[in-house]
Design goal:
This protein is mostly helical. Helices cover about 50% and strands about 10% of the residues. The chain has 11 helices and 6 strands. The strands form 3 sheets. It has a two-stranded antiparallel ribbon with strand order 1-2. A hairpin with a 2-residue loop joins strand 1 (about 20-25) and strand 2. Helix 2 (about 80-85) packs across helix 3 (about 95-100). The radius of gyration is 48 Å and the shape is rod-shaped. About 20% of the residues are buried. Residues about 1-65 and about 120-130 have low confidence and may be disordered.
Length: about 280
């Protein structure tokens, strides 16, 4: 007859529990189950993944530092800040480019000289954490090349001063003949600057009627002469009218042909709209 209760099979324990109990001669041993071994492998996998990602982050930082490095541009004849800003797609356009290079350009952004070195874009910020420091070491060759290029630029500026862009040749001042034709043409040029209307034909027609083209003509017999203000000059202007409608920049002598014409046309424009509208005594 078998002995009672000595070799009874122990009940199996679910793997979902943390440990399995095994009875050996009254002693209880605690053994880890397979599930615990699998879980312990997870941290090791995370460490490996983190190490694999780290070089990618450093590489990205190196690329960021390299791309942020400002570019240099040497101005050539015919270029403008607007053209350079478009070429480099500068955010903010020529104004932003000028603000960053005001010291090199000067106070006039419209005047840039060939040979000026412009900096395109802001300087890259220095890395602040430990990983950025590693990236900076990786980017050192690029920074070294940039420094060499900058020294070469300085040497070039020292060796040869920039050649100033040739200033535009100033237009020669207009010359007019000292006769009726020249006086009318000079008067028309001054009137155009002052916005006084009138045409060559209108001025010439009235001069011939009033003085026959004599700049020293004077009327000593009409009502104006009786009042002590005789009509004078090419367009027979009395002194009060000449003084009231005198055009700045012309002679203050009412007998001066150009001064007489411009004052008379200024008066006619105020009263009749234009000397062209005058066909008789005015």
């Amino acid at each position: 007859m078998p002995a009672q209760g000595k070799h009874r099979r122990t009940k199996s324990v679910s793997l979902s529990r943390g440990i399995a109990a095994v009875t050996t001669g009254g002693a209880v041993l605690a053994l880890p189950v397979l599930g615990a071994t699998t879980a312990s492998a997870t941290p090791a996998h995370s460490v490996a993944a983190e190490k694999a990602v780290a070089p990618v982050s450093v590489t990205a930082q190196v690329n960021s530092v390299t791309k942020a490095a400002p570019a240099k541009h040497s101005v050539v004849a015919g270029e403008t800040l607007s053209k350079i800003a478009r070429e480099y797609s500068v955010s903010g356009g020529w104004k932003k480019l000028y603000e960053g290079n005001r010291k090199a350009i000067g106070e006039n952004p419209n005047l840039i000289h060939p040979g000026i070195k412009l900096t395109i874009g802001a300087k890259a910020a220095a890395p602040s954490d430990a990983r950025a420091g590693k990236a900076g070491k990786a980017a050192a060759p690029t920074a070294g090349r940039a420094a060499t290029a900058e020294r070469a630029d300085r040497s070039e500026r020292t060796a040869a001063a920039p050649v100033a862009q040739a200033a535009p040749v100033a237009a020669a001042p207009a010359t007019y003949s000292n006769d009726l034709d020249g006086w009318i043409k000079e008067s028309l040029a001054i009137m155009a600057e002052r916005g006084i209307p009138g045409s060559y034909e209108g001025i010439h027609r009235n001069i011939i009627r009033e003085s026959s083209g004599n700049p020293n003509a004077i009327n000593n017999w009409d009502s104006n002469a009786v009042k002590g203000t005789p009509s004078k000059g090419l367009l027979q202007v009395i002194d009060p009218t000449f003084q009231a409608y005198h055009v700045p920049g012309t002679s203050t002598d009412s007998y001066d042909p150009v001064a007489n014409i411009t004052a008379a046309c200024n008066y006619a424009a105020d009263r009749y709209g234009s000397i062209d509208n005058v066909f008789g005594a005015y």
